[in-house]
Amino acid sequence: MSVQEQSSEEPGGAPVEESAPAGAHPRSLAEDLRARDDSSLSALLRARPDLITPVPTDLTQLATRAGTRASVIRALERLDRFTLQTAQALAVAPDPAPYGTLQDLLAGDADDPVVVEALPHAVRDLREQALVWGSDDRLRLVRTARELLAPSPQHPSPTGLGPTVAEATTGMSPGRIQELLTAAGLATTHDAVSAVESLTGLFTDRARMSALLDSAPPESLEVLSRLVWGPPYGQVTADPAARLRWLLDRGLLLPTAPGTVVLPREVALHLRAGRAHQRTEPLPPPVEPVSVHRPQVVDSTAAGQAYTALATVEELLKDWDEGGPSVLRAGGLSVRDLKRTAVALDLTEPAAAFWVELAYAAGLLASDGAAEERYAATPAHDEWLDLPAAERWTWLATAWLSATRTAGVVGGRDTKERTLSALGPGLDRSAAPEVRHRVLSLLAALPEGGSASPDALVARLHWERALRGAAASDDLRSRLARWTLTEAESLGITGRGALSAHGRALLGAPPGAPAPEPAAGPGDKLPVHHRRHQHRHPRPAPAPEHRSPAELAAAAARAASLLAPLLPEPLDHVLLQADLTAVAPGPLQRPLADVLDVLADVESKGGATVYRFTPGSVRRALDAGRSASDLQAFLTAHSRTPVPQPLAYLIDDVARRHGHLRIGAASAYVRCDDDAVLNEIVADKRAQGFRLRRLAPTVLAAQADPATLLEGLRAMGFAPAAESAEGDVLITRAHAHRTPPRTPPEPVPDGPPAPDSTLLGAAIRAVRAGDLASTTPRKASAAPERNGVLPRTTSAETLATMQAAVLTGGTLWIGYVNAEGSASQRVIAPVRVEGGFVTAYDHTADEVRTYPLHRVTGVAELADDQA
Fold it and tell me: Measured between alpha carbons, how far is 311 from 359 in angstroms, rounded to an integer?
């Protein structure tokens, strides 16, 4: 290999800056990036947003950052399986590798046509993300990626390949290498290097290698068959058997350590018919519909679930309206409170945790921040209740789509073996929004009304994120996908496993059309037949779609408009029955529902809600300030049936006795105009705990607080009412407890956010200008700068050069140190010099700026052909 052919990357992956003649092959990643146009750089920064945080000063720094270990790992994790297999094949190929060699490693001797057709797209993806650089006849994998993917004893490659002959024979004595040549039927050489080349040439020559293996004993071939697909290492004794000795003598197995042998890479590739992988997967696993329902059935089923979801969240927040459970010291909801909430909602604990977390993510509940902290509804909850039902649903659904808090992990353990609690810390999973979006997008790509198998969806996700998905069926992405299907069904985004019309609108896909797939990126030169092939098997977007707030609002409004006609209209009436029950045949208007919640107890839920009137519930309404006539008039106005006589009697009877007894503060007292009632209370053994004594014929004093006495007498069958110090009846209403204004929890991003077009344009201009400043030739000066060092000139020289550039309109290269002491190089066109400042157009920042002259370290004129 000549000097020009050697890679110019340092061991850590950072490219060394070199100048290459025009038209020559790039000798570093920085040179490769320098040859790209702005659209290609935009695609790189969009695919790897970590490279733009902060904005690199020039292309050399961008290339260096693209080769760092953390950035390369992040990029590899976002590759689909075939693109990752392409990178793995490059890691075991010669460096640099011609495109044909790479194709042979993936397609094999049979030239698999599907692999041949898909490979250009995979190479384009790797090149676009700066994981591969160079022309097609000299493809190079960045150094860090090669180190991560190349096989080693400590980190076996997924290819199952071992080291090359040259790598495996490092340290072997020259005499032993010559013995291998002789046993293999090759002529001896004068040095070890040529001997290794001769042995490698034999193993890579298909005809000669086949002839050598034809002479091998069957037992030796069986040994090779056990190692061919990996792992390539095996154990041998100090005195190997004849079948092993035959292989060792000819270099088909090479020793790597005492008692350990390895199958050389070239031998394995011959036995594999040239394939680097046992199973190459150029196509994503198909997601086919397992059942197809009529779209109207799917939409109506999903709408029913959406209505149930709204009712569940309303009931949860109503249960916590006066203040919910206490906040644990470590944060979150206790197991006991979660169980109590699950019982109140008639749900399982995992389902209750989901609804609690959803309300929290939507900003409807939070901790109140008081000294004895507890959970309560937020002011946003009251705003939410005033919205139409469909808009309340989109509020919840959009919060769920973007939330990183994952209810499915509640009850599990964190890294410190602490139990994860609902509403507690440690529930964020940054991959959740991407997985939710992708699962729903795959459902959107099916025919309308089609549902998919969860296993097929999980297999597709594993293919799309091969390094993250691994092979386990219980990895996080698999669990997130299965939770997504369950939660989407509970929310009413899907119905019967198929995506509904309002769910499709929420994703931004028009009804009846598949979810949008990413367009081909810059430089995509796939043939027409390959693009058709890609359309049948679309590749996923590298991240969930990023829409502006206006686009999100438009999608939510469209989803609400599609859902609204499917939701039942709230009713303004109930059906009263003679058994002291009322049946609500559908959802009730809010004022009616609020009054019924006080006047009656909910007996059963479902399509129709059954309320039961009891003395306690009627008394609750009277305590809230309602009179018997008010209650009779209310029921008459809102019932489609006459008020039954038993219910009218119940209301009148409770009202007649309500307030007959009065409870006040002594510790407490009881007063009643009917002394016979007081005599009955004193004689009752159940009242002994109150230590009652008569103060007057109509007054009893008690050694108990008023609230305890009130509840005790009610338990004895009386209907007392509390009174104030002035003797007025106290009206008791439930007081809603609200937190101070709270913002919903912020999602934890999965890496830096994708840059928008404005940021990309500004960043590319800054990088180009910085690169111009660092690479443009300068005129020789009296004190020429050394490579990488800021220019140095005296103050007088700096001032004179600046003034001359103002007159001539020239462009200068300056060194500048800002107020924080950070040094940089800039290319400026001076406009005015006065008062110790220079005003100039800064090519690096692409704007006019003013610089103090005392901070300019030096100045140099650009070469005439670069000015």
Answer: 12
Percent of the chain whose pLDDT exceeds 90: 42
The pairs formed by 168-175 with CB atoms below 8 angstroms and a separation of 24 or more are 168/254, 168/256, 168/262, 168/264, 169/196, 169/199, 169/251, 169/254, 172/254, 172/255
The answer as to whether 11 is a domain residue is no
Say yes or no: 486 and 622 in one domain. no
> How many C-beta atoms surround the C-beta of residue 742 within 10 A?
19
Q: Which has the closest alpha carbon to 658: 710, 592, 733?
A: 710
Angle, alpha carbons 279-285-287 (nearest 5°): 165
457 and 331 part of one domain = yes
The partner residues of 233 in beta bridges, in order of sequence, read: 262
Same domain, 337 and 475: yes
Could you tell me how far CA 358 lies from the centroid of its own chain? Answer: 16
Same domain, 727 and 635: no
Of 507, 530, 557, the last residue of a domain is: 507
Residue 32 burial (CB count, 10 A): 21
Total domains in the fold of the chain: 6
Q: Would you state the pLDDT for residue 482?
A: 95
Angle between helices 757-775 and 38-47 (to 10 degrees): 120
pLDDT at 608: 79
357 to 318, 352, 404, 425: CA distances (angstroms): 16, 9, 11, 12
- pLDDT of the residue at 207: 93
Query: How far does Cα 550 stand from its chain's mean position?
Result: 22
> Do residues 207 and 114 share a domain?
no
Angle of helix 192-204 relative to helix 174-183, nearest 10 degrees? 30
Least Cα distance to 303 among 577, 544, 561 occurs for 561
Contact 778, 861 (CB under 8 A): yes
End residue of a domain, out of 657, 691, 707: 657
User: What is the model's pTM?
Assistant: 0.75
Whether 333 and 453 map to the same domain: the answer is: yes
Structure tokens at 101: 């060699």
Please name the helix (run of DSSP H) or strand (run of DSSP E) that holds residue 468, with its range, or none.
helix 466-469
Tell me if 154 is assigned to some domain: no
**Do 124 and 179 have their domain in common?**
no
pLDDT value at 595 more than 70: yes
Q: What integer pLDDT is reported at residue 529 of this predicted model? A: 36
Q: Is residue 688 part of a domain?
A: yes
Q: Which residue has the tokens 């509904």?
A: 500
> Quick one: 319 and 364 in the same domain?
yes
Q: Is-cis flag, bond preceding 98, omega within 30?
A: no
Q: Say which amino acid occupies 73.
A: I
Determine, yes or no, domain membership for 627. Answer: yes
CA dist 612 and 603 (Å) reads: 6
Are 858 and 790 in contact by the 8 Å Cβ rule? The answer is: yes
Per the structure, the complete domain to which residue 849 belongs is given by 795-861
The total number of residues written for the chain in this structure: 867
- Report CA Rg, the chain: 39
Minimum mean pLDDT among 512-521, 724-733, 795-804: which range? 512-521
